[in-house]
């Protein structure tokens, strides 16, 4: 094989020499310097790393396209230089084949077959284009220019460039399976219902948790400005939040309950609203307030619009029945779950992702947070619906969340009647390596370690020491067993119809 490829098979050699003669016939000019500089800029992938850095400055698909382009480029470069240049040694063009003023100096010493520059250029352009086609179209001329520059400067034969480009395209297509395009999220859907109209906040009683992360001294005043007729109760440190919510609900004339705070506060208010058959107005505030986002309340203006017009919809709630305490002396309790519950490392993952998200964007922040969380973590043994598992994460969402992977973000429908159950297991051999590899390649959702299903009821038991259960962001220690079920259309909540 080696002797055959020194000059290439006869028909390939004739094809190459014919094309090179055509290139050599081009008159000299400024384009010679352009292609020489373009070729040099792509040495060691520097050109594409720079382009990726620019793309990464834009959140969303450009950043994701840059990441996939670099992954594809790395694979193409490794396959080209480590595998094919060893298997297919070939001499490069000689100065006699091209004008001396055009010939690259110094000429690379590695095998001419295939072209590493062409492989990297095509891999990056195709890889980025698979994520965002418009970027791929913009990058295609640059990639083609780099590939052609290798022939123009005498660094490669045309067939080397074609083979390298094919390797690059193949690397991009293969790595797309590693870093799959997320399917589009479904459209937001609501089951609309009637609720009291609250002009100026008349009939509205609001609980404000002053421990919410975004609370300031002006928060209560701002709420009073937009809801001048509402009753507003501020809960201060040391006061019992649940008791204060109950007393607020009991205020005479209350026709709807409002709440300002994080997920835990909103969950407690939702339980009171369900118990007293009151509609809930969730105000944007607190450290994390996922339900306000899912309900379409992103500002006080949205809240005023929905409350004034009586615009409301129905949501399911999760009912969490748990057993705590000693085996011989259990304590049973029942809670309302508005958003999610988790056991294992999911709370740490979420905290890291939220911290990194402003700088890195959601997809990349999720990858980095996953690596940091699981690099040194240990799994937990649990019994899920009678089956024993070693788990990194047991996650239960009230409603179907998207994307369908390890980092759910959005819930377009709040009354789909299901529990979103996600388990990342450590039952398999080389569990940690499997986990980290699936995170690196973006295949957590399709990996054997990930188990996704939907149900209306699920039971989880501790297989050893009691577990820590987080419900809507609130940690509950000493839990021995827990059962989740769905209660359909139990909560009416205000949501702007637009």
Describe this structure as you would to a colleague.
By secondary structure, this protein is of the alpha+beta class. The protein folds into 3 domains: 169 residues, Phosphatidic acid phosphatase type 2/haloperoxidase (Vanadium-containing Chloroperoxidase, domain 1); 124 residues, Rossmann fold; 132 residues, Tumour Suppressor Smad4 (Sandwich), CATH 2.60.200. The chain is 41% helix and 23% strand. It is built from 15 helices and 15 strands. The strands form 2 sheets. It has a 6-stranded antiparallel barrel. A hairpin with a 2-residue loop joins strand 9 and strand 10. Helix 3 runs antiparallel to helix 4, helix 4 packs across helix 7 and helix 13 crosses helix 14. It is elongated, with a radius of gyration of 30 Å. The N terminus is likely disordered.
> What amount of the residues lies in strands?
15-25%
Using only CA atoms, what is the Rg?
A: 30 Å
Identify the CATH homologous superfamily of the largest domain.
Phosphatidic acid phosphatase type 2/haloperoxidase
CATH hierarchy: architecture of the largest domain: Up-down Bundle
Task: Output the CATH topology of the largest domain.
Answer: Vanadium-containing Chloroperoxidase, domain 1
Mean pLDDT: 88
- Describe the sheet with the most strands: 6 strands, antiparallel, barrel
Spans of 5+ residues with little confidence (pLDDT < 50)? 1-5
**How far is it from the N-terminal to the C-terminal residue, by CA?**
69 Å
